[in-house]
Design a protein that fits this description.
- The protein is an all-alpha fold and 84 residues long.
- It has one domain (5-82).
- It contains three helices and no strands.
- The termini are far apart.
Length: 84
Amino acid sequence: MQIPPAAKAGLLRAAAVANATFKAFMLHNALRAADDGLEQAGRSVRSECCTQIILDLLDNPPEPKSCLAGVLSPHDSLARASYP
């Protein structure tokens, strides 16, 4: 990899401050950036997937199970009476 001289000088100074060799400094920070990028990509994929599932459930909710239907019936009656 070719690094512009000014950028390499800054990286060398940062490596010296970190008391690391240039190679160790670059590898450590590259791996950290790679881990962060992969973690962010994983969150993004999960987030998009979960969002789609939630939107699908809101558009097409499942029928309530029989045990819930009995609990919801009084509420439905009140809601219909309040909002004709």
